[in-house]
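pasting input
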Amino acid sequence: MSTTRGSLTGSCHCGRVTVTLPDDSAGVIACHCADCQKLHGNYFALLAADRADVRWTGEEHIRWYRSSEANERGFCAHCGSRLAKRPVEGARVMVSAGLFERALPRRVVKNLWGAQKPDWYDLPRVGPMSPEEFVSLALAEPIGTASAQYGYALRATAGNHRAPGVIALTWITAADASERERIRAHSKQNVQDFAAEPGFISIVTGFTGLRGFTVTAWEDEDAMKRALAKHHAVAMRELFGERFVASVWTSVWTPTRVNRLWVRCPACGALEDVSDDHRACAKCHAELPPRPAYW
Ligand SMILES: [Zn+2]
Ligand SMILES: [Zn+2]
Ligand SMILES: [Zn+2]
């Protein structure tokens, strides 16, 4: 079987150097590492191809600069355009996406070394984002800085309107992305068990980077213990019996004070204390929305 490969041709600013790659070369990949920041003045947007598949013309104008022990960077000696990075010992060449100008029918498909990027720009988005893609992107390449990270959260509720008697507050850190998937699979089963326990109120759970969290409200500690005796006990045995998760903390809190619960009257705009679950506005007697759950 033979397949016909198309090609992509680019050039440096002055045109003395041109490069041709197969059009199925990988990329665009954005490298945000400290070396690329210095050398490109920004991140390095690149296409990656096998060295044997990359054709240069005007090669006599290319200067190769040893940027690290393992890599060298090529630039045009006449116009200074950054052309490529290549490992000193290796079969791949990373060619600047900018050489192909606007004709390149590509989008960024991957970010590398995102943690080394400066604060003044955000990582390029990888494709258009649906809510599901946003979740997986937040999981794969945490969005944020060293001190603040975005992620996702979800709330699962049983429609229980009783006030919480205890709240469990936990976090767990996965060692890597595959452990995070394993934790999420356990959480999914746990939430199903929780929903089946009559004393369960609600859980808000999610992930930022590799760190997962839960805030779970229960009518009382017995309800919590009944629910945790199910699948959660299996997960705990894996956690303590195997090399699974990097760190973990759990806690159970009882309220110092459960404050009043307020709902806006849709008719007169008054904020009504509906802790007793009354359904008529005390100011205008209009019907109030149902009292929300405490958690
Ligand atoms: Zn040039
Ligand atoms: Zn880099
Ligand atoms: Zn009212």
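fyi The helical segments are 34-40, 131-140, 177-195, 221-228, 231-241.
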